[in-house]
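In this supplementary section we document a worked example of the pipeline. Step one takes a protein sequence of length 254 as its only input; no multiple sequence alignment statistics are reported here. Step two produces a three-dimensional model, which step three serialises into structure tokens for compact storage. The input and output of this example are shown verbatim.
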Amino acid sequence: MILIDIGNTNIVFAVSANNLIKKIIRINTKQNKIKLKTLINSIIVNYSSIKKLDNDKIAIISSVVPSLNYLIINILKKNLIKGLIITSKDILPFLKINYNLKEIGADRLANSTAIIINKISNSIVIDFGTATTFEVIKNNIFLGGIIFPGINLSKNTLINEASLLKNTTVMKTKRVVANNTKKSIQSGFYWGYLLAINGLIEKISKENKFKPKIILTGGLANKFKDDIKPKPIIRPNLTLEGLKIIGSIYNAKK
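The serialised model returned by step three reads:
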């Protein structure tokens, strides 16, 4: 079974073989369509040749970029693979959702599915992607969440709009108050986002009167894991885990 997570910044591919997630590949979403098509086709052809796939005839897809759906579905079809793009109706049998079903992102559905199946009934899932998103689950019910600009998106916008600022990597600084521009940017983004995240965790917990487990996923999760309170669980491939579970349910119904 092929797993595909189509995000605004990256498309992540993997396979489920012997009930394990393997062969994870990330490619940039925003590149020339002809080059992107060639690259995706190459990955699909390579995956199709892997032995002992859990199901070599389907691909389970989460997508927040509708303009790429047809492209990928068509490539899969040419390789005799059925592409299934998950929607809220695929999740409703085992996850109650208190959210507008027409608006909830497929990646957030996959994340929540992985959490519920792993028997974590109360949680806040924080996904460090193009947007930083929070999914709030209480008593196995998806209550809703928060969406605000991702760290790299915010940083790149600042650099592009401010002529005297140069790009730099987001990282933890020893002191909040810095004495040069590079460290000032690093401090602002690390401590600014950290305090926002910890503040939101506290606010969400009080508002919903529960003590959730904190689950981190996405590219920058590891950079913040030591300072987020309470101590979080790191699940870098959470969306893929959710897609694998949904695919397994689909196989079981056949």
